[in-house]
Design brief:
11 helices, eight-stranded parallel sheet, TIM Barrel, alpha/beta
């Protein structure tokens, strides 16, 4: 009864209906005719918050993360305005608190579930827990009471000072695998993760956020490419094509947290997209915007235009996989 797949309540019914509507919408086209193909999107990486948040340290915060342009409310209504009419049929909400622990961290996750309950466009919630905590299993059980819960996100804390996977982190990953959940990884260089690739669970869907922490440059460095190739040898690893315009950061003379008008030309990102497409293929790339943090480098519509241009010479099935089908599989959104 504790397995998320076996729980049935009104939220699960809404989720199933949303997915059914999504698939019906995606398939309502003339087969083989790209002019009549209706683009469907699941945005797998958005953040929402009220500012200031109520549960301890926050992201952004006046002290540790003084990002003035992010210090306001961000709601689903704001996101709906930002997507500018694109065919976004669902989103995955990523918990983004900055530092609470214990009850405060649970409360911050609970707020995300409340938002999901209020908006059927939110197809899943990726929560945040300390994988190293003694209370990890009990905290996970608390989050699993919510049918919108699809997985967790973690970062560099899973490694010790020598770059080895912490035993507690590996145990937590195995628990997630046994519960049919997923794990997003952020802020970890692929070269570091590749060194422990053989230790990672073989069935846990692992999603590497934001081009697997690529340097903010338009060049494709061999270290990044070679490490991704090692990681891609594990069929359960996926790469999130998210916040792509931020990769043009080095072209601008701005402070690290300033907003800027990122490069719009799709051609500037072609080498990067060609690289990840070649390495991971069409079945393991997943679209995400990183909204509203992505506003740092440009609007939602620019991200879509860049990816659309890259996909323009590829079959509709490839486009559908990257824009929404891979998300359904990786996050177990389809009941």
């Amino acid at each position: 009864m504790s397995d998320r797949r076996n729980r049935k309540n009104s939220t699960a019914i809404l989720l199933g209906s949303a997915i059914a509507m999504l698939l019906t919408f995606a398939c309502s086209r003339i087969s083989g005719d790209s002019m009549n193909h209706k683009k469907t999107i699941i945005d797998t990486h958005i953040h929402l918050w009220n500012y200031p948040r109520l549960h301890g340290e926050v992201y952004p915060s006046p002290d540790k993360h003084p990002i003035k342009w992010l210090m306001r409310h961000f709601s689903m209504a704001d996101y709906a305005a930002a997507d500018a009419g694109e065919q976004v049929m669902g989103v995955v909400l990523i918990e983004a608190c900055g530092g609470p622990s214990g009850d405060q961290l649970i409360a911050s996750n609970e707020r995300m579930f409340e938002l999901a309950d209020q908006n059927e466009t939110i197809l899943g919630v990726v929560g945040k827990l300390d994988l190293l905590s003694d209370s990890f299993e009990s905290d996970l059980a608390t989050l699993m009471k919510h049918d919108s819960f699809v997985g967790l996100r973690t970062g560099g804390s899973i490694f010790d000072d020598e770059g080895e996977l912490r035993e507690e982190a590996l145990e937590a990953m195995n628990i997630l695998e046994s519960k049919n959940l997923s794990l997003d990884i952020i802020g970890v260089k692929p070269s570091k993760l590749a060194k422990v690739a053989d230790q990672l669970p073989k069935k846990l869907p692992i999603i590497l956020d934001h081009f697997s922490h690529k340097d903010l440059t338009l060049s494709v460095k061999s270290e990044w490419r070679e490490a991704l190739a090692i990681l891609a040898s594990l069929p359960n690893l996926h790469l999130k094509v998210s916040d792509i315009q931020l990769l043009s950061f080095e072209q601008f003379d701005v402070d690290p947290l300033d907003q800027f008008n990122g490069i719009k030309s799709p051609e500037a990102y072609r080498d990067i997209l060609d690289t990840v497409f070649t390495i991971f293929g069409s079945e393991r790339l997943i679209f995400g915007s990183n909204w509203p943090v992505s506003n740092r480098a440009g609007p939602f519509s620019d991200q879509i235009a860049i990816l659309d241009d890259f996909l323009s010479d590829k079959p509709n099935a490839v486009r559908d996989s990257i824009y929404f089908k891979n998300a359904i599989k990786a996050y177990s959104l389809k009941k």
